[in-house]
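Researcher: Next entry in the queue.
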Amino acid sequence: MERGREKRRAVWLRNTVVPSAVMAAAAILESCGGGPRAEPASSAVLRIGLGQYSATNPINGLRQINQILALESLARTGEDGRMQPWLAESWTVGPDSRSLRVKLRAHVSFHDGSPVDADSVASLLPEALRKSMGPLFPDFDHASAIDRETVEIAFKHPSPFLLESLEVQVAKSGPPVVGTGPFVMAPDSTTGMTANSHYYMGRPAIASIRVESFPSVRSAWAEMLRDRLDVLWEVGTDALESLNNSNSVSVFTFTRRYQHVIAFNPKAPAVRAASVRRALSMAIDRGALVRSALGGYGLPSSGPIWPHYWAVPSPLPQFNFDPEAAADALGGSKAATRGTASFRFSCLMPPDTVNERIALEVKRQLRAVGVDMVLEAVSQDQMVQRAATGAYDAVLIEAISGPTLIRPYLVWHSGAPINWGGFDNPTVDAALDEVRYAPTEDEYRKAVAGLQRAFMDDPPAIFLAWSQRARAVSKRFNVPPAEPGRDILSNLRLWKPTTLLQRASRN
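Model: Structure for this entry, 507 residues:
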């Protein structure tokens, strides 16, 4: 059992430490199905550069882009966490509150030309849900075709996660995976994608996408300045200032559904007590951290709930910055006055600029209350190994969390296979299950408020800030505005090459 749990911890860390565009697909590229029809495709080629994404595996970043641009779901999440139709045209909740009748959008086909009808969707959903829902999958009862355009999805119990299950991607297994999106994974290619000429919302204006990996964002940015790239895939906050000063590049920022957190090993003696973890959370000035370590590109966080979530309690209970109370709880008041430390714990961190700045700011703030956080920069492989053996006190990571609550459930519930460090607390488990089985919206709101309180009573991590990233796009392309709260890549199928005259007017 212990060996299995250690293996699950390692798998979770591997999927969480490295930004996973696959897990975040619904949050990063959720609206390819919206908007007016595109004009006939040109011969335009979009050149994308990935920095620090896949230096050891050049095609890993491409696979992530393939997943994002080629696959779609029955529904997508809005900025408030509510589900919005995508491949589904509409749905109706059954009178028992445990089933959905989903009407599919007409005239949709997979990339191989086969129709996306009720039979195909009903046959694909069980395995897709099993992979995406983990320990929640036992709640699934069946998926069946009612007629050619209608699928019934049923759970064994009423649950808000029934509606959130519509976010699962509808695709045929590969390789390559066969989806429905505006771009098609190029067969036997490790460098690009092609436009889906039969896309139901109109063929993209971009004919093909070419992807190249670089060892760093800096090297990819240099290529963009030489007009050899059109898109810098993901820009860290450390590079945003220099990008914003460019006359040839537009920068589009977005808030990711990931949080910077310092996750605790619940078995480590130094941080085992809930009172210690609460005190450490009170010692952090999150606003100052966002300003100094993230350059203002981030949102302070004090728990697992997306700040714009429709069911978020108002006001949201959160840890207030109270260094005096934190120092007293940790016995560090006198030590802080003397400039020494009365409490010490270690923290693993990825060796990159952004995480280093966050770690140093947290270390500085904790030092002010008499706490010494000993930092240790380790590689991904080392971090996975340490997670498997439990040889750590805490680790600085980016953990997926919003905009719905199914994600934090899969991260923090003790029965979840991606539970960090085997965090096991009856109070948190009970609060998560109250959310899972809430039969009405009123009960759900109460359960969400209880969940936040549980995470404050026995915090598994110091929740620091929701991270922000940016896409840098050459002004060689005309990029229509994205919907509020969405990544600019959500409308990639509508991008078009600009004329020389348009570029001149922009400059």
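Model: Residues 6-41, 54-60 have pLDDT under 50 and may be disordered.
Researcher: Noted, moving on.
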